Write the structure tokens for this entry.
Amino acid sequence: MRRLDSIIDSIFYTCALVAARVTAYALVRPHFPALGMLLLVEVLRYAYDIRKYRREASYHMWSSKLWGLLLFIGMWSLLVLQRGGWPVALAIFWGIAADLEGLAISMTLRRWQADVPTLWHVRKLAKAGT
């Protein structure tokens, strides 16, 4: 069930991007380079996880939860207020940061594990020897 939740999250993010592009193209267009970076990091993370663990990660990180909130605010700004600006940029850049944290967690963990809140928790687990 945890893996399915992560897959649904990725589908939601993709649908949000498509909705923003279709309904607010002029407001999203300036963010295309950052969105490209976000998509690249997301794909790299999935590829790394699948190669290392033979499945996608399901960390449910705190940074990802905050990204969901920032994505909601950014989408509200685009779709309801018809404004781009800092809420959209913040959501994109936080998404990149969350994906980089997930990649760092995957590089640090020896074996697949669900529900890892932060990179700090992984380091704590490593010191404990698990």
Notes: The longest helix spans residues 86-108.
